[in-house]
Amino acid sequence: AESKAKAEPITLDVAVVMVPLPAQGHLNQFLHLSSLLSARGLPIHYVGSATHNRQVLDRASRLHNGGTACRPIHFHDFTLPDYSSPAPEPDAAIKFPGHLQPAFDAARHLLSPLADLVRSLASRSRRVVLIHDSSMTFAAGAAASLPNVEAFCFHTVSAIAGFFFRWELRGKPREPAVEILELPHVSNEDCISQQFCDFVLSQQQTTVADSGRLINSCRAIEGMFIDLVAREPEWQDKKTFAIGPLNPITFNQASGNGARHPSIEWLDQQPPSSVIYVSFGTTSTFSDEQVAELAAGLEASGQRFLWVLRDADRADIYAETGGDAVEKEKLPLDYYTRVERRGKVVRGWAPQPEILAHPSTGGFMSHCGWNSCMESFSAGVPIVAWPMHSDQPRNAVLVTDVLRVGFHVLDWDKRAELVASATISDVIERLMASKEGEEVRRRARELGGEVRRAMEEGGSSKTDLDAFVTHIII
Ligand code: UDP
């Protein structure tokens, strides 16, 4: 159906404007949604700072086939006031990384140039649809008082995390569905800073301007929570479209021909499902002590591993160098010699969706960022959950306690500033080399099939996406 849509582009007088939150996971999701809508013939305007636009494009193009899908998208580089990000705190564990907040605050200055763009498009188009991140609700203001402009909120975090976050803010009203669940308790205070909570709250009132919302998730992953969010008081009269997971794996773009990243070449040499992939996303930096424990834990596990060792992203470094920050040397050189036959350490950016889709990958030790979870679910790969902040602890509950496709490194109420190497090696062995782990891996494979089917013709997400496209073009 996708290639048919490409062959016969619908040329309509509709323009779509995308407003992501400037953080890698969110930028990616907006890029994927842009590619999908663009493949349906819709003109896409992607809005952000020059640095963030460059970051998302560079990184997409480093993924096999990833760059090609971006070509038709029109990127608008807007200038934001200078801001400086404090260096990420080493060991950001159990704290929301404050170094991201200046970029989020600066992004609010997009409103004025965004409003100009939307006005200009609205004067030339029959209809404009503005899609903003659920943490960029102020952007809906650019649609206000323009009769042919409609705003939609794109929920870039899981339904489970969004639901529990807002449910707690609403004072935990009686909700039988929640009581039945009896899930491990994670409180807002435990996973986000007051500053970030204020940032989100300051935007709540503008959700009234939205016509509906999109959720980057699917019924196979969290149908129960999608139903719960659809019933939320502020949204129950509006349409909710669950259109995910949007990623190169469900788009069949996570493999291909051409230059292969060294990590993929290394995976090619390993037995099927034998490698645990270890990566913690783009917002956290481990302390040197934690890196040493992790290195020792991976070594002691006796399992094959592919470890992406990098610090948190810093927009200022990206702006200066056009590349990833170069990390200081954190591992003693003899470590590489000792583990060389069964371990590979990647420094800098790795093609994660390709790694997860590779047949040699059998497990993922992850911080449980929402993209990482969805990529792992899509590839049918089980997870060792090591959440740190924001939506991650609730995503980890989804992985381990709801879907049962992974194990916690440590239960959230036993989380520690330093996770010992023995804990790390035990949980890796439990996943990769135990009877119990086999069950979890089997469930993850089944979930992978269901998730990929959701995005195919007749699947729940494809059906919702088609309904959304129909809604915006009519
Ligand atoms: N990612 C990647 N290579 C890396 C690190 C991250 O491709 O070396 C991608 C990963 O596939 C995911 C995104 O960056 O799509 C990270 O988003 P996520 O929501 O998992 O975590 P965040 O970085 O927002 O905490």
TrEMBL record:
Enzyme class: transferase
Top-level division of the source organism's lineage: Eukaryota
Enzyme Commission numbers on file: 2.4.1.-
UniProt keyword annotations, A-Z: Glycosyltransferase, Transferase
GO terms under biological process: cytokinin metabolic process
Cross-referenced Pfam families: Glyco_transf_N, UDPGT
Glycosyltransferase N-terminal domain location: 13-248
UniProt GO MF annotations: UDP-glucosyltransferase activity; zeatin O-beta-D-xylosyltransferase activity
Stored SUPFAM superfamilies: UDP-Glycosyltransferase/glycogen phosphorylase
Similarity remark: Belongs to the UDP-glycosyltransferase family.
Protein name as catalogued: Glycosyltransferase
